[in-house]
Amino acid sequence: MRFSKTFIKTLREAPKDETARNGALLTRAGYVHKEMAGVYDYLPLGLRVIDNIKGIIREELGKIGCEEIAMSTLQNPEPWEKTGRYSDQEVDIWFKTELSAGGELGLAPTHEEPVTEMMKSYISSYKDLPLYIYQFQTKFRNELRAKSGILRGREFLMKDLYSFHTSEEDLDRFYAEVEEAYRRIFERVGVGDSTYETFASGGIFSKYSHEFQTVLPVGEDTIYYNADKSIVLNKEVYNDEVLEDLGAKGEKFEETTAAEVGNIFKLNFKYSEPLGLKFIDEQNEQKTVYMGCYGIGVSRLMGVIAEKFADEKGLVWPESVAPFKYYLIGIGEKGMAEAEKFFAGREEMALFDDRDKRPGEKFADSELIGLPFRIVISDKTLAENEAEICERSTGKTWRVSLTELFEKF
Q: Closest Cα partner for 266 from 210, 182, 213?
């Protein structure tokens, strides 16, 4: 991508109403545009990061047999009323809209009810199960604390996966597969070393659920971990009863803040029973379908990565999710000509800063935008038939020959 041909615009200062570091840096670096509190537009650079995260999730879910669909955001109240979740007293984050002909629709905060209702048309026999479907979709939640950049939005992108099973044993089997898939996802996006599967309340679904929490100074959750981090608990379940249940009573636990990036629930019959999702088993008896649900906040995860790796100069993207691998700068007439040669055929790998700007401004923008490597080809480096490479995460700088640059980069 040519810098001059896109509408990336970097800012020296963040907007006054953007106090969260992830929101401030993503805005300054031209990744997002803030519409209002908790509502963001994703610009070309930001959309590429989102797409890279989604690509990793797709690959890992594909390995365990999941299929992608796309469901409606507009919600018929009827299935939600059957489970009691359309009530503002039960779920107080709904956005709802009145219809001109009477009645109202909701904007989906999640999709357990509609996906269960949909599956009544496709599941009738044990031969139809198990089934695993997921989607990437914008969710709407009327959050009261939308002050954390893209970490907590009123409109946000979520990956929600739902599984359907004939037995609790099969649900347990798949649940374990999702746990492993999530570990691989968080490892691949760069936060695996600081993201922990955390015991949390199962609420009305089960005794426990599991959250995936990334340690982060600005995280809104408090978690506790033992010495080898084999047991990590959310504050809501950190008590003697739970510690005894987990065989950890008497162990010493440390406290830290973290941001939730994923969660998984064994729903069992929570939605299939009231909505009538049944199947005929091998003995020709009617049974209720077991269910599980598994979420990842995709845009939230982007914000967590931005927060975790940023430094005083700007963003620092892991290579796996970065919008481009290289930030390319040509300096001087010969340097620009050679940079043009390098850029040809590498348009999807490099952001070429071809603007008529001073080198210092380009260097500052390269650090703010945070691509993994900066390549500088200048009249000075060409005097020795070389280019300069700088790794953003470490600041390490070295020279390579033009031959090596064109062959290996």
A: 210
